[in-house]
Predict the structure of diphthine methyl ester synthase.
Amino acid sequence: MLFLIGLGLGDCKDITIKGLEAVRRSTKVYLEAYTSILIDGHGDLESYYGKPIIQADRSFVEQKCEVMLNEALVEDVSFLVVGDPFGATTHSDLILRAKQMGVDIRVIHNASILNAVGCCGLQLYAFGETVSVVFWNDNWKPTSYYDKIASNRRAGLHTLCLLDIKIKEQSWENLARDRKIFEPPRFMKVFEAAQQLIDILNIRLAGGAREDTLAYSADTLAVGLARVGTDSQQIAAGSLLQLTNSEVLLGKPLHSLVLPAEKLHPLEWDMLAMYAIDKSWFNANKNKYVKN
Amino acid sequence: MLFLIGLGLGDCKDITIKGLEAVRRSTKVYLEAYTSILIDGHGDLESYYGKPIIQADRSFVEQKCEVMLNEALVEDVSFLVVGDPFGATTHSDLILRAKQMGVDIRVIHNASILNAVGCCGLQLYAFGETVSVVFWNDNWKPTSYYDKIASNRRAGLHTLCLLDIKIKEQSWENLARDRKIFEPPRFMKVFEAAQQLIDILNIRLAGGAREDTLAYSADTLAVGLARVGTDSQQIAAGSLLQLTNSEVLLGKPLHSLVLPAEKLHPLEWDMLAMYAIDKSWFNANKNKYVKN
């Protein structure tokens, strides 16, 4: 049996009872270690579970998962995923291969950012497509998520922006020379994402877009979230421009950003107001955002 | 302290370690008992947690929650919610009142249908607005969710349809006479929801809509899900028409229905094919649905 187990968002105690029981009865425990990070380290998990954990990086899951699946044919094996097993990465590939090989799979769900984002007070059912904001470099400045945000806003929906995580990345030089030297991990923060969203407006304007057709402005309401589901969770609501100054306020990763719909339910507004960066901005903008 | 604790979707062992620790240290434990149901009964929870659980129905949460909040000012109190505390119902009202009263709140997240629906293989980030399908009666046949499905499909997004739950409903007669006699609980199943989605097409056609402008047809791919996150979970994929015959296949509540986007990622299609009601229908329709 292969147990696909969500760890939730915080520390080692965010696993479910069912998940912990599966881990404890498994002879091998793998941890998916490339699409997210643990707030708790690897060592904490090992001591809490009382058994060694094997890090499964992208190349393991994509190329060598047959090793794990063969084990799961004859014994109980756990594959741990931060958040929910069907979060940002679906692991469909792994499940389909398991099915082909005749491996029984059991999924143990948990919270992921895709539902825990509701903690800011915006209604989950009113979220549209989720987008990813990636680090720009000199040669690559993708802006395609702007159109998805625009589409969500036209439909009256909120947009969850997942912010880029770079783990085990190689520089071009190291990649070219096939040297297994990795860059330090990088996690995009809300202040960077907010700046990028503003930069896109300027790119669109420079490309001839009319200001009144843009999906949002630097003064549009946005919500920054840091370390959702942990004891040190922080939420900050204000204009995108205000969020470009949220580096100290929001602190360490992981961060996410939400661009709410143009009109909010009064309770959504009141919830966000609890997290206002600037109460006077909130008071001044209430009539603009709240549905009558 | 008020702990707002998600129970997840299955049985009493789907609570997290952190959640269970909070329950065990709480002097009072309330269970929100009106927006969802537990697959396990109330009694199982009480024996597992080793303490009595107070049922909190809608009128309690909306009108009498000050009693609970006053307790939480001086002791640890747990408020349990099936799924995640910020699932279909946000409990924003409760949180705002707690804030006004100076009650500390700690949220312990868990899986909800809004993220666990990913188990069918459709990518979570490609879901649009979530809709609710409610029981029709002779006087009230709301169809407004059709437009939301149409909007999601135009944007290339999947739609999760939450199916109606009627708990502690009074008949008009009992309501009029203020008799606290409640109808038996009712849970909409996928076969009923699929029929209603087809009925709406006929209503639109009768209203003059052109067939080629409709958002979907009786032959459109849909996915029925039953008891997601439990040991008896069932998934059935096929046309809406096929799903009108899923009563035996999917069995007991809770059910949900997904109307996928018009075009799917090949892996999404392969995952759904694992749950095909009719393999030949899947084979015949692959080219229509899969992105090149």
Chain B touches chain A through 56 residues (CB under 8 Å). The longest helix of chain B spans residues 190-206. The longest strand of chain B covers residues 221-226. Chain B has two domains: 2-111, 114-289.
